[in-house]
């Protein structure tokens, strides 16, 4: 098994390894067993992740049920969301946004999100609505979403961005829901 972290990243966390791996080439071919002693590995705490997907958890009488959400929402991390009935069908829909641009070389940027609207279906699942159909765009590093009502009565979404300006979106279009068909105008 080989380490995920590059030499510089692991040395920043475990400085003593700088003496052992003075050059990149030996580290590049080193296994976990080469880097750490058997004793260190035996004393280590092992944590396991079984999924990295954005997931909705529904509370059913104090039992959480995982609900998978569409693939297009998996293109970037989600940092905030608003639950509301965006299409007027009486079901709770979800508007969400995120992105992360200041990552390590090993992980790369996670900034493919534009903001996502998910409409709840009759069976409790969620359908993704294309941004061009609902008009909400959140392409920066979103950290907070708030729904407000403007003086003219229209709803607006305020987007708080990391290392960027606060934005306001008033163009969330009315979405009409047709059972078993998806989203249409």
How does this structure look, described?
By secondary structure, this protein is of the alpha+beta class. 16% of the residues lie in helices and 31% in strands. The N and C termini lie far apart (52 Å).
List the helices and strands and how they pair.
Layout: H1 7-13, H2 17-20, H3 24-28, H4 32-35, H5 38-43, E1 55-60, E2 63-68, E3 78-84, E4 93-98, E5 116-120, E6 126-129, H6 131-134, E7 142-149, E8 155-161, E9 167-169, E10 176-178, E11 182-184
Antiparallel strand pairs: 1-2, 3-4, 4-5, 5-6, 7-8, 8-9, 10-11
Describe this protein with a few key phrases.
6 helices; alpha+beta; four-stranded antiparallel β-sheet; single chain; 185 residues; elongated; disordered C terminus
Largest sheet: 4 strands, antiparallel
Total of helices:
6
Portion in helices: 10-25%
The percentage of residues in β strands lies in 25-35%
3D shape: elongated
Mean pLDDT: 85
Question: Could you give a quick summary of the protein structure above?
Answer:
With 185 residues, the chain is α+β, with helices and mostly antiparallel strands. Helix content is 16%, strand content 31%. A four-stranded antiparallel sheet has the order 3-4-5-6.
């Amino acid at each position: 098994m080989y380490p995920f972290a590059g030499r510089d990243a692991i040395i920043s966390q475990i400085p003593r390894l700088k003496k052992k791996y003075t050059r990149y080439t030996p580290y590049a071919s080193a296994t976990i067993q080469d880097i750490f002693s058997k004793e260190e590995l035996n004393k280590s705490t092992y944590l396991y992740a079984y999924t990295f997907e954005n997931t909705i958890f529904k509370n059913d009488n104090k039992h959480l049920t995982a609900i998978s959400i569409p693939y297009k929402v998996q293109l970037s991390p989600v940092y905030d969301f608003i639950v509301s009935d965006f299409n007027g069908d009486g079901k709770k829909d979800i508007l969400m946004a995120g992105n992360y641009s200041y990552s390590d070389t090993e992980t790369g940027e996670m900034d493919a999100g534009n903001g996502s609207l998910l409409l709840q279906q009759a069976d409790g699942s969620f359908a993704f609505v294309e941004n061009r159909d609902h008009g909400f765009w959140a392409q920066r590093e979103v950290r907070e979403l708030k729904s407000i009502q403007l003086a003219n009565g229209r709803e607006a979404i305020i987007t708080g961005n990391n290392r960027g300006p606060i934005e306001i979106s008033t163009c969330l279009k009315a979405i009409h829901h047709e059972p078993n068909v998806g989203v249409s105008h």
